[in-house]
Amino acid sequence: MRYRLTFFAGLALGYVLGTRAGRERYEQLKKSARQVAQNPAVRNTAESAAQQGRVFAGKAYHVVSEKVGDRVPESVAGRVRSLRERNANGARPDDWGTSNT
Predict the structure, then answer these.
(1) 10-36 residue pLDDT tens
(2) What is the CA radius of gyration of the chain?
(3) Which H/E stretch holds residue 83?
(4) Residue 69: Cβ within 10 Å count
């Protein structure tokens, strides 16, 4: 899925940069992209995917931490603990701009 999205983004960028229609076509494409991005269904799907990614990352963290155990240097373990505590307290939203609803 990621490769397909990258391909279409590159295709769109190439079209915009290579088109002879100029600024008018660029503005039209930008408006269409903004409408898609602001569509509630698209936003909900993106938030659901982000939430599911966080769940999978949490599961992966637990699996890896069980297998690695005490072999992680204390400096790394301390950094991970501080990041998890900061995110658990809700001090900062994630970097993706999604809400945790």
Answers:
(1) 888 887 777 666 778 778 888 998 999
(2) 20
(3) helix 74-88
(4) 8
Residue 100 CA to residue 51 CA, distance in Å, equals 7
Phi/psi of residue 20, each to 5°?
Answer: -95, -5
Within 8 A by CB and 6+ apart from 73, the residues are none
Give the pLDDT of residue 14. Answer: 80
pLDDT digits (tens, 9 = 90+) for 42-67: 999 989 999 999 889 888 888 887 88
Helices then strands, each counted (H, E), the chain: 4, 0
Residue for token digits 């809700």? Answer: 90
Structure tokens belonging to residue 78:
């301390």
Nearest 10 degrees: CA dihedral of 32, 37, 40, 42? 110
